[in-house]
Amino acid sequence: MDFTVLTDHASEIGSGFLVTLWTWGGGVLAGVIAGLVIAVIQLSAGPWVRGVLRCYIEVIRATPFLVQLFLLYYGGPSLGLSLSPMTAGLVGLGIYGSVYFAEIFRTGFTSIPRGQQEAAAMLGMTAWQIIWRVQIPQMLVLILPALVNFTTILGKETPVLSIITVPELTFVLTGVGAETFAYVETLLALCVGYFLLAELCSRLGQWLERRASRYLTQGVQQRRALKPRESAA
Amino acid sequence: MLEARGMSKRFGEHTVLQDINLSIQRSEVVCLIGPSGSGKSTLLRSLAFLENYDDGEVFVEGELLGYDRASDGRRVRSRPSRLSDVRRNMGMVFQQFNLWPHLSVLENVMEALLRVRGMKKDAARRLALATLEKVGLAEKADAWPNRLSGGQQQRVAIARSLAMSPAIMLFDEPTSALDPELVGEVLQVMRQLAEEGMTMVVVTHEMGFAARVADRVLFLDQGHIVEQGPPMTLFKNPQSPRLAQFLGNYLERNSLFEAAPALNRVDD
């Protein structure tokens, strides 16, 4: 084993790591936003729109990410859609992620008792305020494990982007391996790289979970102690 | 200030409310009583347009609730902003409290003041604390709702609604989800509101409360208002056999306790 190949190519590997982080983060962000939009529309739309969204979800879920990516990158130009590898990768991850995130959010929305929305509506809150202030903060506690889980899975789909030449970690390290014949060292380094990313994600998830579930674990709100009587009468 | 004219409501084939005519005056306290499934909760929810009634009309201070007249004379569902606007002077208290568990007691009361009324944080906080004081829970301001008893939660729910200074408050079985010993504190707050002149419509099984606080009691059965009038007239001298039977069931149950007066719940 000769791990000096890694130090020799440190700057390439570093930039590959950053590209992975970027495509992952971007893909998750796009997926979460699109998923949330889909879930919210599903809540309120008529049967026609719901049917279309249902089809979209079923089709994306039933086809492999690699095939979707090829279709987008190689098939796109014949539909007048020419994307750079990076953009195609981000869009692809976003589309692929959106359907899973949408399903997670949909479960979350249905888990909040309807009466809470009615109470908010009777106080004059708008549909958007109800979603943002009443439903999402609560369902976050319930769906965070599922969100973190799928975010990790999506991170492990990013190596697929190497096939359309996005210079991310797998692309760089397999390249270095092929060049220097240090296959084992580079593959081990890959494992460590993805492990670090997944670990980061799970730590972030734990922190969010603690924060979001304060109302279940604490007796009183501890964000700020009640100031000594600002006159309550 | 709240009026229903010929209102009907169907769930599929089943008619739950039939030709309801009802007019509630300022400062009037009206209790809706009746057996389970008689439509009393549906009636109350229709008055708030939480259920969309099918025929007839509901007016809140002269404004049609839930529908607008289209140019061709047909009526169409109001846009959400219009609905909120007509409901602006209406508060509602639910059987299940429906507090938001992720917000502290104080934040529950402040939320609509901040986001609907657009109040500044300090002002909202002062008003929320003052309203909590009124229901006797200012010292619980920083607690999470889940840590309170049912009776306390319902009082917070009343404060949340009250802080928006509604002109009329609707109560949907506000004590039905409570342990018997917690019922009194909620009824006490409601009685206080009634004495201060709040217009109230209350769906309840608490006959004692209806007898002492209501100006008028409505007895519903199978989607009809069978009988209405001042509580004492209605309770002492029911005209319809259905109401007599309904009251009979209550009296029979309560007579079990007559031998032991300490067991008899005091509503005030």
TrEMBL record, chain A:
It comes from the Bacteria. Gene3D superfamilies: MetI-like. Pfam families: BPD_transp_1 (PF00528). Residues 17-205 form the ABC transmembrane type-1 domain. SUPFAM superfamilies: MetI-like. InterPro entries: AA_ABC_transptr_permease_3TM (IPR010065), ArtM/GltK/GlnP/TcyL/YhdX-like (IPR043429), MetI-like (IPR000515), MetI-like_sf (IPR035906). Keywords: Amino-acid transport, Cell membrane, Membrane, Transmembrane, Transmembrane helix, Transport. It is a multi-pass membrane protein. One of its GO terms (molecular function) is transmembrane transporter activity. The chain crosses the membrane at residues 21-43, 55-74, 86-109, 130-148, 181-201. Its main location: membrane. GO terms for biological process: amino acid transport. GO terms for cellular component: ATP-binding cassette (ABC) transporter complex. Coiled coil: none annotated. The keyword Transport applies. Belongs to the binding-protein-dependent transport system permease family. HisMQ subfamily. Part of the binding-protein-dependent transport system for glutamine; probably responsible for the translocation of the substrate across the membrane. This is Amino acid ABC transporter.
